[in-house]
Amino acid sequence: MTRTNGGVTAPKGFKASGIHAGIKAAPILDLALLVSDVEGPIAGVFTNNRIPAAPVILDRLHLKKPYGQAMIINSGNANACTGAQGLLDAEEMAILVAKRLDIPPTSVFVGSTGVIGPRLSMPAIRNGIPLLMQRLRKSGHRDAARAIMTTDTTMKEIAVHTRIGKHLVSIGGMAKGSGMIHPDMATMLAYITTDAAIHPTVLQALLREAVDSSFNTISVDGETSTNDTVLCLANGMAGNPMLQAQTGNAKIFQLALNHVCQTLAMKICQDGEGATKIVEILVRGAKKDHDAKQIAKTLATSPLVKTALFGEDPNWGRFMVAIGRSGPAIQPKHIEIAFENVTMVKNGQEVTPSKERQVQRVMKKKSYTISIKVGKGKGSSKVWTTDFSYDYVKINASYRS
Amino acid sequence: MTRTNGGVTAPKGFKASGIHAGIKAAPILDLALLVSDVEGPIAGVFTNNRIPAAPVILDRLHLKKPYGQAMIINSGNANACTGAQGLLDAEEMAILVAKRLDIPPTSVFVGSTGVIGPRLSMPAIRNGIPLLMQRLRKSGHRDAARAIMTTDTTMKEIAVHTRIGKHLVSIGGMAKGSGMIHPDMATMLAYITTDAAIHPTVLQALLREAVDSSFNTISVDGETSTNDTVLCLANGMAGNPMLQAQTGNAKIFQLALNHVCQTLAMKICQDGEGATKIVEILVRGAKKDHDAKQIAKTLATSPLVKTALFGEDPNWGRFMVAIGRSGPAIQPKHIEIAFENVTMVKNGQEVTPSKERQVQRVMKKKSYTISIKVGKGKGSSKVWTTDFSYDYVKINASYRS
Q1: Is B187 a catalytic residue?
Q2: B350 to chain A: closest CA residue
Q3: ipTM summary value
């Protein structure tokens, strides 16, 4: 697998564009289009939130026939909590694109991100679509990736290619999201393209696997916003023999897809709202993986832990509090906590002589790992988290103003 | 029931004291003692945390014989995650007080609050106890209430009396805690005294009920620190006929006890770390009370909701996100959100014309109620929460330094 330049248009047969349609007040890009020359299998993973936004409801419906050819995504408005009208608006977005491309509306997938509640400005979208079509090109990936940003401070895209037999298969991706690892994250959207030939059920299984080891590692256990969406469209133009489940070729593709998803997830993590650090939390020794995940999640979302990370304060007691309240039965006397390779807590107590100074040095780093052993079981889990800074409060106290 | 001056020494037969023993570096009170002239029934409610501190383990043990006569509490050190040595230290505190008072060590209850991890300074405690004994007096309630404070900015105490038949029964209380309504709260301690004559099992049931409708309403569902403790000692010196379960007299006592606990809980809430507002969140229309509680809890602990409260931003979408991810099945189209008497969301959508301005006026208040209807069920729940301010991050990023 090789990293290449570009984004969602790196695979064969994809074009993209991004324009300012006027959904956002500021004169910045807010509408993106992504089109494949031919229809192909599409897979999707969506929010678990009980109040899904209109485009999520529409996409889930369209995915019942798992073939697609285009995606239209707006930023500036989430089209969430907008009732029946919101659904009609999302559907109209798909229909307008479908008409222009002369394809069925069910082949068009829709995404929205931004403020929850107000109705989408349909005049802006209707007026924008012709220009969006006109601008479609191979080099449009950057504009598309920019047009889906909200509080993001950086554009997020990636492309890789890998060999499957004698065929070069490419995967491209773009994402938006920031601060997503907080308990009720801002919307995370990711759009992945590939020219691989693959059956839709295989694609869905591989995407689910890739999402679990990437976006779900930072989003912490499916606590997702109303709009979260990951879609992967495979147009088959690489000409490889159809990828079959459980084969070596599928494995090669899985690794490349994982890399694309993990890279986008890390980019989102690095762009955490007000985050100054990224910390990996590894929990092991739990009875089950599920227990380990619950403990890791409690640590990753604890405001007291996150402010300690920001303060570079080796206040391991806060970790103990969070571990103790996370739910799973644990043996306090087996707990070990290490910051990188410095073990600060052993047998549930601080080691003597204290390693506080060494730990403080680790905590000054921008990125490091905290390993936590909670018992003698085989359950383990890994999550990424960020710190809680003054800026987090600042950004979120005034998001709409 | 009448509110009176005083605190834990308001009921007959109680004395208290507080001194600087040297557990804290600063020359402020850090060791408290509370003694009854006679032994009496004692009830306790403790943290659910899986890593209880040494004094919690000791108190639970002593409570197996539910009679007590004295409580010794230190601040500055939590005696948590201190292993077998921590247990021996907590036990020694009880033994030292017991010797001085010539009572069994099991009649002495111990509390600690402060930094987790380091061993308690036993020389400071050993040297402090004689002075603590010497200072014991009726007027010592203030010193005791001050000596248990950590990040608290205000001392928290209350006293009430009520008539049970022709007997005047008093209840007094002191508490410490601040920022407790955050997901992994700082330690909350509350010590309640009464001169009521009551059987220990009745006292335990009444205390549990009072805690559920007070401290557990702000602590949000038992997500507690390593040290949280509520103890209630009843010495019987009021001379009332023994309070029996399910009687009118027990009901009168319950109301007074609830008032004491609720007042202390509100004082803790008002002293939330960096909090600028107290907001009551009422959830109704859920299938079960448990569902309503889960939704209320998710809202009360959501950083995005809490920063919106701080920013006085009627960003109701954040409430929808939190409701949707909280777990229980809800009907998005039945959701209503009102700020005091201003309904902003109805049928899951913003009402037109928008009530944003009116809601903004409500949100400028220091304290207000947000009512949320999530369906047509009969389950309801109420929690108190505070906002998340810059100061919250500041206090918690530098707690130990």
Answers
A1: yes
A2: A117
A3: 0.74
